[in-house]
Amino acid sequence: MASSIVLFGPPGAGKGTQAGNIVSITGKPQVSTGDMLRAALGAGTSLGLEAKGYMESGQLVPDEIIIGLIEERLTLPDASDGVLFDGFPRTIAQAEALSHIAQLSVVIAIEVPDSRIVERICGRYTCGGCAAVYHDTFNPTSAAGVCDNCDSTEMKRRADDNEDTVRTRLTAYHEQTAPLADWYRQRDLFVTVDGDQDIQKVGQAIALVL
Ligand code: AP5
Ligand code: MG
Ligand code: ZN
Fold it and tell me: Best substitution site from 56, 110, 135 to test ligand 1's pocket, by max atoms within 8 Å of Cβ?
């Protein structure tokens, strides 16, 4: 079975930011449950409607929904050589389900202290054209309002990127997701990278792991 990679870490750790690099190095497609749920929400599907309230309040979407989404995603042809999971799994139940449907080579945890998270999340914007991730202070576009990657001028902010929701997301992370670190350590899959340094340095540290 082809092996997959998990990108793990708190909200705002830089999972989406680093994913592009990992995709270029490994050729494995990025599978972000957050992006998939936002796409479902945007398309107005019943799945999107079901997830909406959880996402807007910063709580985890129920495991059955997420596991179903992943099972379906892994049947697509581009997943046959393994994928890069971004933001999944987030509970022990999700990790257990995943262990039955995919083989992992490594779980890369991007470590960032809570004190950095709010400023990261509240300054984030993304390109509507290509989904590139930017930050008002830490990683702005070269020309204001124009994507460096695709020249789109459609910049978006996420509905859940506000201080209140970030606190709920952080609590969910510590209570439900952080215990996965030990779960994966016991399986010899867990590697940490210091995410509290500039974006290029984090990328270099991840490249060393790969
Ligand atoms: P999701 O979309 O996965 O959000 P998240 O985990 O909260 O993570 P983020 O996307 O906010 O952060 P990131 O690590 O990708 O950081 P980024 O690179 O953008 O999930 C959203 C919601 O969907 C959840 O709350 C939940 O409701 C639901 N959901 C999703 N998956 C689920 C699952 N498996 N189970 C249950 N529910 C699920 O960077 C953030 C900002 O920081 C950017 O502006 C960036 O430019 C900047 N930045 C990045 N790196 C650096 C750096 N090194 N230095 C300075 N700034 C940096
Ligand atoms: Mg993300
Ligand atoms: Zn773009």
Answer: 135
